[in-house]
Amino acid sequence: MYHENVGVRWEYSNVTDGITVAEFHEWGKDDEIENIDVVPVVAIDTDSLRVVEQRQDKFPNSILQEALTYVSIRNMQNYDMDTDDYNIILSDGKRVIIVSIHLQNRKVNYYGRLIIRRERKVLRQLEGKEIPERNIAAELGEPPKEKKKVLSHLEYEHTIGLTQTERKFKKYLLHSISRKEGTDKEGLIRYYYCGLFPEKKVPKNKSDKKMFDEMVEFAQFGWSDKHEEFGSELIGRDSVYSNDWNRLLAKRRDLDTIR
After folding, report:
1. Mean pLDDT for the chain overall
2. In sequence order, what DSSP letters do the residues of 5-52 get, joined into one string?
3. What is the DSSP letter of 92?
4. Which of 81, 82, 121, 255 could, after both became Cys, cross-link 76 (CB 3.0–4.6 A)?
5. Mean of the pLDDT values across residues 9-31?
6. In the prediction, which pLDDT does 165 show?
């Protein structure tokens, strides 16, 4: 199965987990949409889809080979398409993503989503069909040992229920908190901690590390007015991210006005 003239919004800034790619309703009016001449569609079970969304180091050869039976390299050449990379639409019948793969090293370049009418068409085509169990986890084997992740790295559980703008807010907040780690300014961590949790009685012997870790945990989960107020206080004193933060605030206010 394949689709022609497919509109795609790629997520270039976050390739760590395909499930965090912005949904259609989160797209901005200035977001770039690429039109791809022809793209194969492969049905995949939910568990295997999650593996593909989390493994950028290696794309499953079984899926690639099936996709190539729908859209071959020669087909791509006939469309005058670049053959260094290969795009595949994947769906478990409930969700749809598109993956860009580098054909030489078989690694994931980035993930994206289809324009909404195309996504719905893919789901309609798979409606009522049996989705094959693929056990992609066994095919790919153990993932490579992960490098230590930076503090601003967002796991799936950190993004549940958040809009694209809120995820960006969260990353800037975590970036800013990380800049305070190991500070030599006495009392700085305690100052921000007490401002964030004014209701807490903080023992004098509570370590900076403990307070720092609690601020990180607060910032990682959810998004609320309290998160935004804390970010504005923290980043307002940190010129590195203040312009980016203020642009996001302005964007969010514009969206609120539209609503």
Report:
1. 88
2. EEEEEEE-S--S-GGGSPPGGG--TT---EEEEEEEEEE--HHHHHHH
3. -
4. 81
5. 79
6. 84
Neighbours of 98 (CB within 10 A): 28
Q: What is the pLDDT of residues 219-245, one digit of tens each?
A: 999 999 999 999 999 998 876 888 889
**Number of Cβ within a 10 Å radius of residue 169:** 24
Q: Model-level pTM?
A: 0.71
Helices and strands in the chain, H and E counts: 11, 5
Nearest to 97 by CA among 87, 109, 89, 107: 89
Per-residue burial over 59-94, b if 16 or more Cβ lie within 10 Å, else e, is: bbebbbebbbebbeeeebeeeebeeeebbbbbbbbe
Stretch 84-107: mean pLDDT, rounded? 94
Length of the chain: 259
pLDDT tens for residues 144-177? Answer: 776 667 777 777 788 777 887 888 899 899 999 9
Please state whether beta strands 107-114 and 96-102 pair in parallel, antiparallel, or not at all (unpaired).
antiparallel
The amino acid at 131: I
Tally of CB atoms within 10 A around 116:
13
C-alpha Rg value of the chain to the nearest Å:
22
Local structure of 55: helix, strand or coil: coil
